[in-house]
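Cross-check.
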Amino acid sequence: MSSQNNAYGILIAALGGEGGGVLADWLVKCALLHGLPVQATSVPGVAQRTGATSYYIELLREPLPEGTTPVFGLTPVAGRVDVVVASELLEAARMVERGFVTGRTTLIASTHRIYTTVEKMHMADGRQDSKRLADAARAMARQNVLFDMEAVTVRSGTVISAVMFGALAGSGVLPWPRSVCEAVIGASGKGVNASLAGFAAAFDEARQPSIPAPVVSSDAAQVLVDADLPGGLFNGWKERLHPWPAAVQLLAAHGALRCRDYQNDAYASAFLDHVKGLVSAATPDASEALEEAVRHLALWMCFEDVIRVADLKTRRSRFERVRQEAQAGTADIVRVTEHFKPGIDEVAAVLPQALGAALLKQATRRGWLGKAHVGMHIRSTSLWGYLMLRALARLRPLRPRSLRYAQEHETLQVWLAAMRQVLCASAPLAGVLAGLPQVLKGYGDTQARGRLNYARLWSTHVAPALTGEVDPGQAAAALRQALTATLADPEGKINSAHRPPAGAQPIFWAAKPGKEATTSTSA
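Predicted model, tokenized:
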């Protein structure tokens, strides 16, 4: 039916497992209680927040004369939807892209993000720009109600469907009073009190959005203060950061704290020494490249190995986050099972350098690499599983003598030397070279491809520029193009010639003599 015939369309865009179907049922029940003809259709996605779902409700704002039967649409039509409610910002943007949000539409959406698989898989920063998404939503809709529904959900201890229901009611787009909504929730029989609390909080938020609290200045000194460092360490770091540009100070403060958490105070001090060398070499026009280099330096120095993974999986903060995400009560028992599939490469990575290298050599000779994997399911919430993982985490003092540590830092030192050279000679090349470590990610075959790609890019583009064989400007343009192509093809599906050969060491792959990939500076 057309809008002239009193039809009113509501489109719900949610993710699997968020209760979009429950919200649609609530709306249908409200319409029936209020005496309005209504119809609902749905396109459910994959459950448990891995797929998009959509529900379309079409109703009449006023009852028809007795004996008249309405004809409703089964699916939403672009340009003819009155209300769009989205449980997440990218879902709202998806509705805008499909033409459902127009000058007649009231858009009600959450501003939080749940990153898609594509965003997570990207080798660089694949996240969509939240500000751009929100701006597009605001520009297209007749009326906007945008706030962080996830925060309201967590505070209320409910599910986001109840919060979306409250936002719908509070925005004034429903043709029935609040009491009808609360009566329907009350009759649902499950989690009524929490659902009503979330509904009420969202109702108030939609009617009068709260003003965000002013953001506290995140300068480097404040970061160190918040970290509650020992007095001597705090003063020492503050003095070392003081001469550097403000942006570098902030990055260095975060990086030092990350390195301290990863290893110890000495490791954090070594990070600051590296930053000092980069700062002293950079010219004023290379400030952006310097900032990018400091950021990637901190990430590289905190590479993930089994020791780090075991440490992160057994932290109290992680268990608290899992309980919160599962919406578990204080009396609920939560069991967490970790899935591992270690291979010879992961074992060799944490062994002393000589022993690990010998193990990899033997495994390569016998063809075991990539084949000898052991599937393990360890319950980290059990006593035995927790102690096993904590024992692995306790190996942290031995990390500097491990094979992986030696290999990572050997390559890191070469990259740092190259950065110091180009920061004072070519800002464009420095900017691209600063992002080169992005290809060094993952583990197993992914890590092997990353090492191969790094070596290939280094020998093809970086090494000739460092020796003066290629103009730095040309090298920067070529490296940027090659790096973009590599990050877009992390699995090597397009350029199969750059896949590692069978039996290549996944930790630090070195090409055979005569291959294009490696030089002594990148192996």
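Residues 3-207 form a domain with the Pyruvate-ferredoxin Oxidoreductase; domain 3 fold (CATH 3.40.920.10). Strands lie at 7-15, 38-43, 52-60, 83-86, 106-110, 143-147, 337-340, 376-379. Passed to J.P. for a second look.
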